[in-house]
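I'll show a typical protein example:
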Amino acid sequence: MLFALLGKYNPMMLKTVMTRENEVFSNPPDGIEVIARYAMVGERGGFINIVKTSSAESLGTLISHFVGLIQFDVIPVIDSSGGKAEKVVKEVLECTSKNEGY
């Protein structure tokens, strides 16, 4: 699965955070493939990293490297090309409506 890791940090710790982010995402734990790395610009700093993994343990290991430095929102994502996202959303809506008696 693909995950977007939206990382937010205290700007006063910029140098430490940048160093750690570069170290960890340049050499991720086993079971993690880094697909893309972005830095957010603007008054609030942050990172957007896209990773691929099939292991919750590997994802947890990756995030544990940032305890006390970066707070991540972890969001499962899919490639939206070719109607893939639309298909997934329709399946979820159908399943939800069946379970709620609609």
Helices lie at 14-26, 56-64, 84-99.
